[in-house]
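Project standup — Tuesday

K.O.: blocked on the structure for the chain from last sprint. Re-posting the sequence here as requested.
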Amino acid sequence: MQGKVALVTGGAGGIGSAICRRLASAGAQVVVLELEKARAQALVDNLPGENHLAAAASITDSASLKMLAEQLAEQYGGVDLLVNNAGITTPVAHDDLDGLTDDWIDRIFQTNWRGSFACVRAFKGLLRAGAGGTVINISSIAGTTGVGSNVAYCASKAAIDSMTRSLARALAPEIRVVSVAPGWVLGEYAKRMDPAYLQQQVDLTPLGRLATPEDVAETVWAIATALTLMTGNIVPVDGGRPLL
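H.V.: unblocked you, prediction finished:
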């Protein structure tokens, strides 16, 4: 990815930072997007390579995304890869309908779906500026299985996969759009779970282990660099979890 520019939303989180490190190690110039610039800068300062950028903007604020797009156009001229990684959730039992409040439903869809769409809309011109760009949406197998942290989270990930297919068709051939759909990932959210519950998930996974942030990052890298005939696909990173 030497000479390529990659923008990663939620880039300083567990999965996001692994993606940023993998892309930087492949030679990419990485733009780490976070709500707080200091959080992004802490990661940028430790990335291999050079000409990376710590950026602050809210993916739910289209005006701030437009301003960032103008900054990136001036600094880099274009963007080769957009990774829509930013997302939120909260644990609510699926049968606890009253526990999943309207506020949380709106927040989840506003960030997970609308925010991802807004980023594609804001950076579309930059993705088309070169030889063609790639969008990778970090989804989840919850969008297919309906099993996840709460009902709204599952629905938001299904919406992301649907958006991936729609935009892959709409933006071809200049821009490819792919979803990466992990199962359980041993990242920041998993650290809050009961170890016995996580072991149960391992036992229910045919390959006998849960994904790491590095597994997700390696998949993103492969789609961006090697699997270049792929668009509109939903790529699982789940160890075969839905098989059981």
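K.O.: great, moving the ticket to review. The longest helix spans residues 102-127. The helical segments are 14-25, 37-44, 62-75, 102-127, 142-145, 151-171, 195-203, 213-225.
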